[in-house]
């Protein structure tokens, strides 16, 4: 039995400023004490995508107030914190730098250890805050506006291997682009999901990227799908037909969910892994989760999807990675810690 | 913070609005000029994020004090290239929050003007990249009379006769010395003592600090999409 320790997590890799606070209990399990997020998503909406400078400015404005709210929500003082974890990559360079600079200052002021951690490991670790420790090994499917990857997770504090990733657009990026084609607002995920519920997912046979027998088994491609949707809609418009937007949305969504779940389930079977975690902003998509549940059940795979709030970018997931590192007795990162916008997922912590 | 006049204040000064990663510990007394106890300055436009906190800790280690010994923090608020500038601002803010100490933002050119100390009208210009400078003008008493602004050196040169300046300081003034045609004062980057002097009145009065907002002067580069991009020919 060890003493309880409080880990603070700071996230600023994209457009959410997050501060999360997690307690490592005596028995080693994690308790979520606070999860405060300030989002600049609305400021990016009119640009149809995240504008890095706008995001960085928003992080600077939000950092101290978000920290203040998180400490208040958790009912802890900064001096009670045992260690600090921060997203060091991957992400937008200028955005990452705001969070890492703040984390260094908190660590220096408090004299506490600092852990520079991988954002993608955070998405996997988020699930441990809701469903407890992960079995080893397990498979993780990360899908969001910034990433689409399939990970073999053997140890959240050290061994994560990317077995597949998108070769072009992230799944969420394809949603945003298709939303523009259908004149729907940014970000595209929620409005397409809503519209798809009124449409027929089998109406249009959109292509499933990289599903040929010679294609990379676990990689994804969504660029061709996005272009196919645009072509289909333009052809419709040119011939003066009314675009069946609900069917287009449903058929596009079906293609995305089909490819993601088919590849994830196949990988789990191939590797003999019985647990699949789906996380990231797109994990909240209703068709993806329904199809994943159906296919996992058929294949005898235990499916874990954290609640939507934990799926999108937040500080709690970073605190969760930090907690795993602290529990594993990892050496802290130095205060010279540098950000790495292209940090590979195999590097859980920058030492 | 209530207005309790202090006798001697130990001030941490930081600035990241220029390529110099600047940190220093400065002692401020009501009756004398600020005294720099320790400083660390590295000129590397890409290293603000890595070096600032190590510099801060090195300064304190040199004088054998802890961060908690600092009474207040002064931070250059720019203008300067955004990514570096934010490092200093968020570092100062987070230190202030964690230590429960006031953080005073000061325009970076004000510190340069104090460092230059010419006693005449002065132009301070720093490098804004994209072939522009951030500039401010100061009168003979050292008060800022114009700026800060961001502008092309040639356009600034045309305004010089109306600014009443006799010399120029800052890296931007050096880079565009030929265009500006002013004698140079050899002060390129703000010093910790200059930063503290720029906030001395507020520091000594324990005044309530202003908002910790960077002087960006430029809007973010972002273009709103017009219509949607077609993938097929109409
Ligand atoms: Zn993410």
Automatic annotation (TrEMBL), chain A:
GO biological process: tRNA threonylcarbamoyladenosine modification
Catalytic activity: L-threonylcarbamoyladenylate + adenosine(37) in tRNA = N(6)-L-threonylcarbamoyladenosine(37) in tRNA + AMP + H(+)
EC code: 2.3.1.234
Compartments, as annotated in UniProt: Cytoplasm
Domain Gcp-like: 31-319
Cofactor, free-text remark: Binds 1 Fe(2+) ion per subunit.
Gene Ontology MF terms: iron ion binding; tRNA N(6)-L-threonylcarbamoyladenine synthase activity
Name the UniProt record assigns to this protein: tRNA N6-adenosine threonylcarbamoyltransferase
Pfam families: TsaD (PF00814)
Keywords: Acyltransferase, Cytoplasm, Iron, Metal-binding, Transferase, tRNA processing
GO cellular component, one term: cytoplasm
Top-level taxon: Bacteria
């Amino acid at each position: 039995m060890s003493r309880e320790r409080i880990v603070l997590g700071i996230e600023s890799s994209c457009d959410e400023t997050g501060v999360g606070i997690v307690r490592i209990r005596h028995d080693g399990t994690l308790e979520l004490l606070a999860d405060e997020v300030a989002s600049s998503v609305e400021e990016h909406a009119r640009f149809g995508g995240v504008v890095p400078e706008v995001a960085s400015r928003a992080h600077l404005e939000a950092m101290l107030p978000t920290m203040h709210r998180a400490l208040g929500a958790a009912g802890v003082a900064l001096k009670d914190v045992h260690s600090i974890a921060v997203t060091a990559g991957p992400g937008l360079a200028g955005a990452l730098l705001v969070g890492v600079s703040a984390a260094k200052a908190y660590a220096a002021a408090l004299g506490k250890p600092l852990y520079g951690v991988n954002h993608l490991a955070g998405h996997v670790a988020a699930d441990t805050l809701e469903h407890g420790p992960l079995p080893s090994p397990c498979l993780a499917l990360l899908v969001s506006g910034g990433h689409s990857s399939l990970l073999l997770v053997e140890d959240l504090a050290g061994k994560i291997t990317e077995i597949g990733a998108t070769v072009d657009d992230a799944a969420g990026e394809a949603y945003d682009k298709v939303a523009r084609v259908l004149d729907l607002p940014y970000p595209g995920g929620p409005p397409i999901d809503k519209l798809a519920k009124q449409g027929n997912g089998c109406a249009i046979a959109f292509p499933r990227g990289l599903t040929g027998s010679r294609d990379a088994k676990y990689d994804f491609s969504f660029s061709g799908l996005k272009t196919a949707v645009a072509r289909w809609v333009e052809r419709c418009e040119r011939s003066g037909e009314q675009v069946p937007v609900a069917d287009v949305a449903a058929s596009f969504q079906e293609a995305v969910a089909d490819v993601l779940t088919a590849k994830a389930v196949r990988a789990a079977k191939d590797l003999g892994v019985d647990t699949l975690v789906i996380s990231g902003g797109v994990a909240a998509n209703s068709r993806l989760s329904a199809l994943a549940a159906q296919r996992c059940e058929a294949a005898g795979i235990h499916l874990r999807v954290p609640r939507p709030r934990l799926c999108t970018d937040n500080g709690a997931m970073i605190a969760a990675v930090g907690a795993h590192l602290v529990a594993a007795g990892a050496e802290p990162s130095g205060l010279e810690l540098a950000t790495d916008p292209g940090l590979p997922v195999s590097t859980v912590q920058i030492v | 913070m209530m207005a309790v006049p202090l006798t001697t204040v130990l001030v941490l000064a930081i600035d990241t609005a220029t390529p110099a990663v600047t940190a220093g510990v400065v002692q401020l007394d009501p009756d004398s000029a600020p005294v720099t106890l320790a400083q660390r300055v590295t000129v590397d436009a890409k290293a603000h994020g890595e070096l600032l906190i190590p510099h801060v800790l090195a300064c304190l280690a040199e004088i054998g004090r802890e961060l908690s010994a600092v009474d207040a923090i002064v931070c250059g608020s720019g203008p300067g290239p955004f990514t570096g500038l934010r490092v200093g601002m968020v570092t100062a803010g987070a230190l202030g929050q964690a230590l429960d100490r006031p953080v005073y933002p000061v325009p970076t050119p004000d510190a340069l003007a104090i460092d230059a100390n010419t006693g005449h009208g002065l132009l301070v210009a720093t490098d804004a990249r994209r072939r522009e400078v951030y500039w401010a003008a100061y009168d003979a008493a050292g008060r800022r009379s114009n700026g800060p602004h961001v502008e092309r050196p040639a356009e600034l040169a045309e305004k010089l006769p109306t600014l009443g300046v006799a010399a120029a300081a800052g890296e931007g003034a050096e880079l565009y010395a030929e265009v500006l045609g002013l004698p140079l004062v050899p002060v390129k980057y703000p010093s910790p003592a200059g930063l503290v002097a720029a906030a001395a009145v507020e520091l000594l009065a324990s005044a309530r600090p202003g908002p910790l907002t960077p002087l960006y002067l430029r809007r973010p580069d972002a273009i709103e999409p017009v219509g949607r991009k077609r993938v097929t020919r109409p």
